[in-house]
Design goal:
Length: 152
């Protein structure tokens, strides 16, 4: 193998067998420079000469078909997303219906209270209104009792 002096750069042809794997001290016969010589490892050789390998990055063509595995993953993800979205919408719908029911109930009760407050005045303009209201109250009471029995 050829070894160059670190100082004067003079080249010497040295027998490989004279250099142990762990390296050894050498002295230049030309300038007298001493240094520790170590055989270059494969890693060092690799560092010196990086492999100039052309890495071809394949450009993704949008028209190119998506691999079936990825396609199925995407579809699965979309399904889960849609399902979750559906659940949220359904939940919101339930809340909306419940809210609407309560709103109607409150409005209805409010109307009844107003009608009850002005029942004398209304009865004067609409004869028989009082009877109608009383009938309604009876119906409500009946319904209330019926519901009570049903729950029992
Ligand atoms: Zn030298």
């Amino acid at each position: 193998m050829i070894i160059s002096c670190q100082k004067c750069a003079k080249k010497f042809n040295v027998d490989d067998n004279l250099i142990p794997h762990d390296g050894r001290n050498l002295q230049c016969s030309s300038c007298g420079h001493k240094w520790f010589f170590r055989k270059k490892t494969n890693v060092e050789k690799f560092k010196e000469k990086p492999i100039k390998k052309q890495i071809n990055i394949k450009k993704i063509n949008p028209d190119e078909q998506v691999p079936p595995v990825i396609d199925s993953i995407i579809k699965e993800a979309e399904k889960i997303h849609d399902k979750n979205l559906g659940d949220v919408i359904q939940k919101n719908n339930k809340i909306s219906i419940l809210n609407l029911f309560f709103l109607l109930l409150i409005t209805f009760v409010a109307v009844i209270i107003i009608l009850d407050t002005f029942k004398i005045q209304i009865n004067n303009s609409i004869p028989g209104f009082n009877v109608l209201l009383d009938n309604f109250y009876e119906s409500v009471t009946d319904f209330y009792l019926f519901s009570k029995d049903l729950i029992k």
